Amino acid sequence: IAIIISISAYKYEKKDSITNKFKQEAIEILEKVDQQYSDSFDDLLLQYRHFKKELANQNKSPKEILAPLIKANQEEIIAYAVYVDQYGKILFHVPEVTSDQYSNIVKRYGNLVNRLAIQGLRTFNSSRSKIVTEKESPAIQVFTTTAVEGLLSGRSKFIETKLDNEETLAFMDFVVNEEDFATGCLLIIHEPQKLERHYLNETGSNLNNTKDYELIAFPKTSSNQKSYYPRFSYYYEEPLWKLNDMVNQTQLPSFKSGKINEKEVLVAAIPANQMKNYNLFLSMPVELMGDKTISLSNVLLIGSICSLLFIIVISVVLSFSINGPMNILKKNVK
């Protein structure tokens, strides 16, 4: 009985240990997803810098070189992109006029981005000695010197920039000739939340393919249904919306058990730091933890049976060892 009680106590303690291990793994996965968001920019930076080199070589037209940005805009990786020459002429921009999104995007970014590219190019060249030709249009001062210089100091990198009071992520770089004079400016604007959503699509798919866990993300403030990953209907699942409220209040990792899609799960959640617009969740089926507990129970059960059999065998052996000599003595006495 003492052995059985001890084994049962150990089993419950081990079950808690397995649950805690799952929680720790979940937090590590979510933190890794968040930390690697910034690393995901590397491929984009390489592509944009390659565009600049191609534009400098002038082997193709800007429209041919920058054509991949059209697809990137359709996939909502970028919001707007423009390439202007030293005279302020727009040689390429996306989205195209025929796009359904064009009118809305241009109202928000178009004119501002075009002018920012021109002003950035003029500011870059202002310290270079060059005779201004009649072909060049006068500079349009729309942005403060500080804002433009901020982009110039971070050229060829991603810089957080406010456009019309909206947070954006901007990439600016120049095509520079042998005289160190900028002949063109490439400016690409990203909407952070859409960039984060695109990253979640890729990361979530990879995670679901390698584990039985599910990555879920809720926007911290936005009410746009498209912002929820993988879908807005998860907002109505009790463990998720309660956890979301808890994380927003405490800004700390949290856990909750419950049902999602009629399936028992344990959910971990963290407020993302790199992905500033999201709280991240990881849903783990309780049955995975149950499988490990059952496996442990089977091992303990086999161990218990073996222990009992061992005790019985020892008891029988001892019984014969003691009773045998006693019986011999009894016979001798008679």
Short description:
By secondary structure, this protein is an alpha+beta fold.
Walkthrough of the structure:
54% of the residues lie in helices and 20% in strands. The chain is an alpha+beta fold. The chain has a five-stranded antiparallel β-sheet with strand order 2-1-5-4-3, with helices on both faces. Helix 1 packs antiparallel against helix 9 (286-333) and helix 5 crosses helix 6 (145-153). The chain is elongated and about 125 Å long.
Which descriptors would you attach to this protein?
alpha+beta; 5-stranded antiparallel sheet; elongated; 334 residues; 20% strand; 9 helices; 54% helix; 4-stranded antiparallel sheet
The CA-CA distance between the termini, in Å, is 42 Å
Helix-strand pattern:
HHHHEEHHEEEHEHEEEH
State the oligomer: single chain
Structural class: alpha+beta
Give the overall shape.
Answer: elongated
Q: Any low-confidence stretches, pLDDT <50, length ≥5? A: 131-143
Gyration radius from CA atoms, angstroms:
33 Å
Number of strands: 9
Q: Roughly how much helix do the residues carry, as a percent range?
A: 40-55%
If you average the pLDDT, what whole number results? 80
- Biggest beta sheet summary: 5 strands, antiparallel
Which percent range describes the beta-strand content?
15-25%
With helices defined by DSSP (H or I, 4 residues minimum), what is the helix count? 9
Arrangement of strands in the largest sheet: 2-1-5-4-3
Produce the secondary structure layout:
Blueprint: H1 2-39, H2 41-57, H3 62-65, H4 68-74, E1 80-85, E2 90-94, H5 102-126, H6 145-153, E3 158-163, E4 166-176, E5 182-190, H7 192-210, E6 214-219, H8 238-250, E7 254-260, E8 263-271, E9 278-285, H9 286-333
Antiparallel strand pairs: 1-2, 1-5, 3-4, 4-5, 6-9, 7-8, 8-9
